[in-house]
C-alpha cells in the first residue's frame, strides 16, 4: 500500500515535502502478549503471566508513560480475575524493560495483597451512577505522577458510553496510592453528554503538559488544552486551543483533528521530528495514525496503523511506548476482544512519505479495499468506491457518485485553522451528459458554500482547483458532486488540501473582534487594535502599541519545527519620537532573543525582515515593540512567517 501511496503522491504533483518528513506506518505485527494467560495453541511470548501472578485474567488499554529515566508505568482498564469475574476498574504495572523486541516485561504490578493486582482508582460500580472509573492518560512531572481518568455513568451501544466527568488523580509514592483531585475535573453535561474533555492523551513538551481530548465514546473530534507542568491540578491554569491561540474556558476549544476518535495516544518522535497521534476510528473499524510538525497541527490525514481485518481480533487503541520516540520502530499496546479480552505489544515501522502536508484522509481511496464502508469519505445521494475496476486515475480505486436525479456528492470533513487560506485540488471525470457539477468547500452537512468551481462534461480526468478562506470556521466539508439529470456520474481521485505557508494567525488583524488584542495576539504594556480608523497598511485593521514609558509590544506565540530556518516580515510605522523599536523572534515569555532588528522613526509603513533558526524549540514568540519615551507609538500590519 505504501508504494501505491507514494506513486499517488507523485502523480498529484501538488504536495510539498518539508525537511521534517511526514510518516506512514508499515509492517504492523504482533510481538507478544502483555496480559492474560496464554490460550491453547498460542506461540507468542507471554512474559508477565498476569493471570497466574496477579490474578489479572483479562484487561484492556495499557497506557504507558515514563515515570523516571528507564522506568515506566502501564495503566490498564476494567479488569477480570482468573475466573472471568469483573473485580477491578483499573490496575497498574511497572516496567524497566528497555528491549521490546521480545515483548514487554513487568517488574511488578501494584498489589493490594500478594498475587492480586490492586484497584488504584475506586469506583461505585453502580450502573447509571458510576459504573466504573477508567484511566485514559498518564504523565509524571518531577516526583509526582498523574492519571487522567473518566467516571463512566453507563455503557451505551457499541463505541458509545457516557461519563459523569473526567478528572486527574495523583500519586506521590511511586504509584502505590492515588488521590483523585476534587477540583481538577471536567464535568460532563448529563443531558447532552457533550463535554469535549472526557478522554485524554498527555504529552509533556517544552514546560507544558498538552492534553488532547475527545468527548465520551469513540465518535468525537479531537480537542486540545495545555497547562504548565507544575499546575496540573489547577483547573484555572488550563488554556484551550481556539484554532489560532490559547483561550480560557473549555467552551473556547476548537478541534485540532476530525474524529471519529477513541482511545487516543500522542507522542513526539525526535528521530523524525514529528508529532504522532494514534486512535481507533470506529467508523472505519481501523486503528489509524496522524502526524504533524507541531503540537497544534495541522495534522495529516489518517493513515492506517492496524487494518480493520487484522486477524479478526476486534482490536482497539494503540498506546505508544516512550521507547518508540527516538527511532523508526513504533511499539504500542493494543487491546483485543478476541480470542480473549486482553492486551498485546505491537510493532510497526515508520517510513517517510510525501502526504504530510495533505489534510485529506485516504486522498486516493486506496485504503478503501481494506474497509467495508467508505469512511472517512461519506456520500450524499448515491455513490461509492470503484474498487479495482480500472477507472482510477492512479492506483486501483477511485470514488464516484451516480444517479438519475437530485444532488449526489462524495465528501469529507477536515479541521482548518480559522481565518486562513487553503488550496483544494482533485481530479474529476464525468459522464457526457453532466452539466451541473461542483467541486469545493462548504460548511459541514451540506451547509453554506465557502468556495466552489462549476464544471460540465469532463471526458478525461481533469484537475480542478479551488482556493478558499476558512473564515471563522474550524471544520469544513470538501465535496465533489453533481445535480443528476438522467443517468449522470462523476469519478473523483487524488484529492489534496494544503494550508497557506504563513504561520501567523490573524496576520492582518482583520479577524480581531475588538480594539483589545485577543487570541492569538497578546500585549506587553499598552497595545491593541486600530479598527476601521484608516491606519492599516492593507484592509481595515492594524495592531498598535502606544505609551509614554516602558516596553510596549504586540506579540504572538507561533509553532515551528525545531532546527529549521524561518523568515519573519511585517509592515511597521511609528511616531516621530520613536528611537528604540524592535522587531523579531524570541523564546516564550520574553525569553532569549533568536533574532531581531532595531528600528527608529518610520514615518511610512516600512517592510521589516528578520531571519532566524528555531533551534531546539517547538514554539516561540514573534513581536514588534518599542521602549517608550514620552507619548510613543508603533503600528504594525501584515505579519508573515514562513519556513525557508
From TrEMBL:
InterPro entries: DUF4185 (IPR025442)
Organism: Cohnella thailandensis
Name assigned to this protein: DUF4185 domain-containing protein
Residues of the DUF4185 domain: 47-347
Record-linked Pfam families: DUF4185
Entry superkingdom: Bacteria
Signal peptide: 1-22
Keywords: Signal
Coiled-coil ranges from the UniProt annotation: none
Amino acid at each position: 500500500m505504501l508504494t501505491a501511496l507514494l506513486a499517488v503522491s507523485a502523480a498529484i504533483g501538488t504536495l510539498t515535502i518539508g525537511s521534517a518528513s511526514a510518516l506512514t506506518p508499515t509492517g504492523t505485527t504482533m510481538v507478544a502478549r502483555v496480559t492474560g494467560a496464554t490460550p491453547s495453541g498460542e506461540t507468542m511470548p507471554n512474559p508477565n503471566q498476569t493471570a497466574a501472578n496477579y490474578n489479572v485474567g483479562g484487561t484492556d488499554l495499557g497506557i504507558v508513560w515514563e515515570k523516571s529515566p528507564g522506568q515506566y508505568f502501564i495503566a490498564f482498564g476494567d479488569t477480570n480475575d482468573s475466573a472471568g469475574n469483573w473485580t477491578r476498574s483499573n490496575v497498574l504495572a511497572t516496567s524497566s524493560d528497555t528491549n521490546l523486541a521480545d515483548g514487554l516485561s513487568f517488574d511488578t504490578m501494584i498489589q493490594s495483597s500478594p498475587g492480586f493486582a490492586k484497584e488504584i482508582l475506586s469506583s461505585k460500580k453502580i450502573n447509571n451512577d458510576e459504573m466504573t472509573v477508567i484511566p485514559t492518560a498518564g504523565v509524571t512531572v518531577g516526583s509526582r505522577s498523574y492519571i487522567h481518568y473518566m467516571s463512566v455513568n453507563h455503557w451505551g451501544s457499541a463505541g458509545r458510553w457516557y461519563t459523569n466527568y473526567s478528572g486527574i488523580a495523583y500519586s506521590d509514592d511511586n504509584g502505590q496510592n492515588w488521590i483523585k483531585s476534587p477540583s481538577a475535573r471536567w464535568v460532563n453535561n448529563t443531558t447532552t453528554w457533550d463535554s469535549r474533555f472526557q478522554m485524554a492523551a498527555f504529552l509533556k513538551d517544552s514546560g507544558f503538559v498538552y492534553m488532547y481530548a475527545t468527548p465520551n465514546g469513540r465518535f468525537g473530534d479531537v480537542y486540545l488544552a495545555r497547562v504548565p507542568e507544575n499546575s496540573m491540578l489547577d483547573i484555572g491554569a488550563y488554556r484551550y486551543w481556539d484554532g489560532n491561540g490559547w483561550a480560557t474556558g473549555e467552551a473556547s476549544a476548537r478541534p485540532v483533528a476530525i474524529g471519529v476518535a477513541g482511545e487516543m495516544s500522542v507522542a513526539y518522535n525526535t528521530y523524525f521530528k514529528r508529532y504522532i497521534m494514534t486512535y481507533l476510528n470506529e467508523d472505519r473499524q481501523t486503528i489509524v495514525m496522524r502526524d504533524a510538525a507541531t503540537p497544534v497541527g495541522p495534522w495529516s490525514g489518517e493513515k492506517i496503523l492496524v487494518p480493520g481485518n487484522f486477524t479478526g481480533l476486534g482490536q482497539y487503541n494503540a498506546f505508544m511506548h516512550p521507547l518508540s520516540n527516538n527511532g523508526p520502530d513504533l511499539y504500542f499496546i493494543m487491546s483485543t476482544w478476541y480470542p480473549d479480552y486482553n492486551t498485546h505489544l505491537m510493532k510497526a515501522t515508520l517510513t517517510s512519505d510525501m502526504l504530510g502536508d495533505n489534510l485529506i484522509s485516504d486522498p486516493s481511496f486506496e485504503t478503501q479495499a481494506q474497509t467495508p464502508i467508505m469512511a472517512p469519505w461519506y456520500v450524499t445521494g448515491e455513490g461509492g468506491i470503484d474498487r479495482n475496476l480500472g477507472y482510477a486515475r492512479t492506483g486501483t480505486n477511485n470514488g464516484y457518485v451516480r444517479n438519475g436525479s437530485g444532488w449526489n456528492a462524495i465528501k469529507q470533513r477536515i479541521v482548518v485553522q480559522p481565518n486562513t487560506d487553503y488550496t483544494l485540488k482533485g481530479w474529476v471525470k464525468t459522464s457526457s451528459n453532466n452539466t451541473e457539477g461542483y467541486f469545493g468547500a462548504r460548511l459541514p452537512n451540506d451547509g453554506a458554500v465557502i468556495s466552489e468551481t462549476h464544471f460540465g462534461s469532463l471526458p478525461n480526468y481533469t484537475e480542478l482547483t479551488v482556493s478558499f478562506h476558512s473564515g471563522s470556521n474550524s471544520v469544513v466539508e470538501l465535496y465533489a458532486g453533481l445535480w443528476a439529470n438522467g443517468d449522470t456520474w462523476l469519478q473523483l481521485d487524488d484529492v489534496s488540501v494544503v494550508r497557506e505557508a504563513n504561520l501567523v494567525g490573524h496576520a492582518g488583524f482583520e479577524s480581531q473582534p475588538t480594539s483589545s488584542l485577543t487570541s492569538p495576539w497578546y500585549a506587553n504594556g499598552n497595545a491593541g487594535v486600530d479598527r476601521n480608523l484608516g491606519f492599516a497598511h492593507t484592509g481595515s485593521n492594524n495592531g498598535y502599541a502606544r505609551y509614554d514609558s516602558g516596553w510596549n509590544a504586540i506579540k504572538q506565540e507561533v509553532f515551528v519545527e525545531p532546527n529549521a530556518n524561518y523568515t519573519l516580515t511585517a509592515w511597521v510605522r511609528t511616531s516621530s519620537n520613536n528611537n528604540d523599536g524592535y522587531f523579531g523572534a524570541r523564546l516564550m515569555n520574553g525569553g532569549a532573543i533568536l533574532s531581531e532588528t532595531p528600528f527608529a522613526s518610520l514615518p511610512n509603513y516600512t517592510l521589516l525582515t528578520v531571519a532566524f533558526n528555531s533551534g531546539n524549540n517547538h514554539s516561540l514568540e514573534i513581536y514588534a515593540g518599542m521602549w517608550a519615551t514620552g507619548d510613543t507609538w508603533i503600528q504594525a500590519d501584515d505579519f508573515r512567517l514562513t519556513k525557508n
